[in-house]
Amino acid sequence: MNDILIRGGTLLTIRGEQRADLRITGERIAEIGTGLAAEGATPVDAAGKLVMPGGVDPHTHFDLPMFETVSSDDHYTGLKAAAFGGTTTVLDFVPLSRPTLAESIEAWLAKAERNAAIDYGFHMNITRLDREVRKEIPQLADRGITTLKVFSAYNGRLRLQDGEIFQVMRIAREHGLLTMLHAENGDVIEILTAEALAAGHTEPEWHALTRPAWGAVEAVLRGIALAEQAGAPLYVVHLNTAGELDQIRYGRARGARVMAETCPQYLFFNLQHLKRPDGAKWICSPPVRNEQDNAALWAGLTNGSLQTVGTDHCPFFYDGRRSIEYEGAPVAIPGKELGARDFTKIPNGLPGVGDRLPILWTFGVGQGHITPAQFVALTSTNPAKIFGMYPQKGELLPGSDADLVIWDPARRLTYGLAHSQHRTDYNLYEGCELKGFPEKVFLRGSLIVDGEQWVGKRGGGRFLKRVPGAEVL
Ligand code: DUC
Ligand code: ZN
Ligand code: ZN
Description:
This protein is an alpha/beta fold. It has 13 helices and 23 strands. The two termini are 38 Å apart.
């Protein structure tokens, strides 16, 4: 196979910008430098463009059964949509849906392996902690799974008690694994939800009103305190309130090894969106909050209190009774309409895996909240480091996988459903004016997105065996 020489571009990494050429040999970056010789290589002109490492989305849910339906992107459609938005690696959560962790992972792999359009790894949900599960956790690293997600909410379904979370954290510490926490107060949610239903409240905004921010705030502090007592690091997923961020700062200022992620929906949306007639489009858990929370989370990106931006991509149709056309065929999957008369029956989750980079570039970099180098850190390099994939992923260095985005910083477009490739019937950023968009995307040296064209393949993505003992940032 010919080498590829990406010429005349500006490389963008967490170290800043550098005018340089980049040579790809096979699946890897072979050489970086100015004026690299073109012989024996297929040239790709990147003049006027940025060349950055492919995005790493640390938080997705493809093909996830929920209530009476399933998230509408599977490991083909969702990973392909990710690629169109400049992301080349995703980390998906494996539900503990079978008697053992091993069987649950095999079932998830069977779905992902034949479909994956980009590279992917797995986090393991620990939603039951019996003797068998305790014994099995240490074997996860042999399978390349080094992260455990626990929940302090979803009573009777996903939640572990505090003592169990503490035990998971101790096992994690012993084996170099990282615990991830969904932080809400399950008891309060259970009580408020029952009261809201009994009072006849059915509208989407009640999803947020029954999941108060204070529950998230105290659950974050509780999580940090448990992790410190276990001597373990902690990664808090989907930060959504200013108060949670205060707790992260409190912990980090005292040396706690706690890291935190936010997601675009918590930067851009709030209760006002849930109050709209089509408010169900914004139903996710934890819920979107208020404008002060949006602003505080932006500030957390600016000042480095937050380490990553993931998406929690878990799309559903807004109206799953109507089909859309996907790759030339009609598709309809039950969605948000399931909860038209009861907010607790609206499937929880939003589309976003393909939106993340373009939206964060225009509104994050473009409006001065973050620098281009911070953009790469938050969306690619930091997740690669925290989740044990660095420098294979998230980096432009000789030896790294040639997962690259050629980014056109001058491209202007009115964004929306027509550009995002998610398999659903709405986009939360409909009509947003964007400046900057991916032009070409390479996965391990192969071109998979060329402008509007998908040139990758179903099953072309590989499962990533991650290594324990990853960095704590
Ligand atoms: N929250 C969502 O909104 N969807 C999927 C899982 C989750 O925790
Ligand atoms: Zn969660
Ligand atoms: Zn999630």
